[in-house]
Specification:
This protein is mainly α. It contains eight helices and four strands. Strand 3 and strand 4 form a beta hairpin.
Amino acid sequence: MSGLTNYVNDPEWGSYYELTNGGYYLAIIVMIIVIAIAALLISRKQDTGRFDTKKLACAGIALALAFITSYIKFELPMGGSVTLFSMFFICFVGYVFGIKVGLTTAFAFSILQFIQSGGSYFLSPFQICCDYFFAFTALGIAGFWYGKKNGLTKGYIAAALVRGLFHTIGGYIYWMDYMPDWFPKSLTSVYSIVYNYSYILTEMAVTLIIINIPAVKRAIERIKNQMSDAVPNPVIENQ
């Protein structure tokens, strides 16, 4: 493993191991393989039909809505921003059509997010993956809850938390130097967690409140039923 990690003895942070460039590339490959295998295994159990024209059109509309609403945002004092439900639209695609369509749409969204805010400045391929490709593609895992009772709520929560996890990993590796002076030094170890989940959990909480208002929930289900006509033999919700 010596070619994948370096031993660092830092006066401030103490002794620790860090990944080499080869280690980062290997981590990227392993994560992609794990996600692909999990998606393949789950998709075989989901009766979602083919990725046809109607699904592509619905996914494209949701992707466009997510991209547009990602520009409508409220900046938090600590940093990060709460968007106008942009995560919801991507998670909704996975909930309606399953994991294959969900991950495909989410990956396309990650590319758009990279172009939107990260294409002009990046530190390394692994940083790009953590902040964009892994983080936003993670929203597609809402598709694991396709056909499940309360699947949209459960899938959205899981997707948002996993997105935050990738941002947090990238934060620890690349962005700790940007920790503000006013942040307690005794809490340095949790800074990346606090920073990234502050805006993600805020958006998640607001979104969950809105989509679980009875009138909104009924409207979402009607839209879902209309969209899911593209899927032959719709899955009956599991109890």
